[in-house]
Amino acid sequence: MTNSAPLTRYITMRRIRSFEERVGELFLRGESAGSMLHLSIGEEAVVGMTDAMQPGDTFTTHHRGHGVFLGRGADPARMMAEIAGKEDGYCRGKGGSMHIADRALGHLGANAIVGGGIPHVVGAGLTARNRRSGQISVAFFGDGAMSQGILYEAMNMAALWHLPVIFACINNQYGMGTRVDRSAGRQAFGARAQAFGLRAAHADGADVEAVHDAGRALAQAARDGQPGFLEIDAYRFHGHARMDKSPYRTPEEEAAGRARDPLATARARLLAEGLAGSGDLDRIDTDAGAEMDAALAHAMATPAPALHTMFEDVYAPGTPTPRPQADRLRAILSEVPR
Ligand SMILES: Cc1ncc(C[n+]2csc(CCOP(=O)(O)OP(=O)(O)O)c2C)c(N)n1
Fold first, then answer.
1. How does DSSP classify residue 231?
2. pTM to 2 decimals?
3. pLDDT for the residue 217
4. What band does 3 get if pLDDT is binned at 50, 70 and 90?
5. Cα 242 from chain centre
6. Residue 60 — φ and ψ, nearest 5°?
7. Where are the alpha helices (DSSP H) in the chain?
8. How far is the CA of 55 from the centre of ligand 1 (A)?
9. Which of 199, 204, 235, 241 sits CB 3.0–4.6 Å from 36 for a disulfide?
10. 241 CB under 6 A from ligand 1?
11. Contact predicate 47/13, CB 8 Å
12. Whole-number pLDDT of residue 313
């Protein structure tokens, strides 16, 4: 590991923050497809885990997965285009923020169902193990999924079959407006994972290097057939979705949460360790902003998919094109005996 890695992680985190700010603007302009948008501002230290993965590794995300995908090398212009519902997007504009996927980068899919992407990595891990491909598969999800039964079925199978899988919980303290101590009787999540036979780690989500240290150890163990669980202790800086003003949180709590800013921590460390000067970091910040301005402009300018392609890429190849609902209803009604 070279010393440039912490700087690279800072750059990635800054690019994620800038992307999120621009995608928020896309939403406010009414240009994003879909009625909701979930920002991961404050959770950028997830890069410590994405950076611990290797090319070819696969992953799934929950509905707040922009940062994870950018961390795995997504092109922000194509991501922004996808969120704007444009042809040039990763899923030709039909997945949007919450269903974006890209096999080439190992993204097996974002998922709007809480916990929905978790079992997929068990399948991916089983495939990797049987093919001896050396890949690992990582499920990224929120603390809300810690109360979903599917997580425990998945953990059990992963442990039983020694799968190269990691369950990465980004604990931002809230599931919509419900604080985690009101949805989980006990919050010792790592102990739950250990009970299934997983290797568990906990990392401070204000410190990307701490997340990376934990993530690297888990990734190595997973590649050797020891599945793992990582809890990243973070804070969601903004509301659940773009329009949520978080009336369920006090200003004091929000101020304390936002003070745990992973970008500020990384910046302070880079300066203290002499790995970058403040001028270098300012330039990085400016470049990230310019890159994401360009991504936003691209998303706004690039065309929407043609109407006749509406059902392409939505159903499996060979599936008959669905007839318009009105036609189906007319057919059903004409068959009803009067
Ligand atoms: C199975 C299921 N139940 C409820 C919902 C509604 N819902 C959407 S997001 C969300 C909160 C999820 O919280 P968490 O998993 O902690 O992720 P975060 O939003 O905090 O990133 C809920 C309850 C859903 N999408 N799926």
1. E
2. 0.95
3. 98
4. low
5. 16
6. -130, 160
7. 4-28, 47-50, 66-71, 76-83, 118-131, 149-160, 189-195, 208-223, 251-258, 262-272, 278-301, 325-335
8. 29
9. 241
10. no
11. yes
12. 85
Cβ(174) to ligand 1 under 6 A? yes
Q: Is the dihedral of CA 146, 265, 244, 23 positive or negative?
A: negative
Ligand 1 centroid distance, CA of 112 (Å): 8
CA of 302 to the centre of ligand 1 (A): 31
**Residue of 176, 187, 237 to test ligand 1 pocket, by largest number of atoms within 8 Å of CB:** 176
pLDDT at 338: 60
Point out the ligand 1 atom lying closest to the alpha carbon of residue 145.
Answer: 15
- Going from the Cα of 171 to the center of ligand 1, the distance in angstroms, rounded, reads 12
Please determine, for residue 6, whether its predicted confidence score (pLDDT) is greater than 70: yes
What is the average per-residue pLDDT within 211-221? Answer: 98
Q: How far is the CA of 49 from the centre of ligand 1 (A)?
A: 21
Percent of the chain exceeding pLDDT 70 equals 98
d(CA 63, CA 78): 18
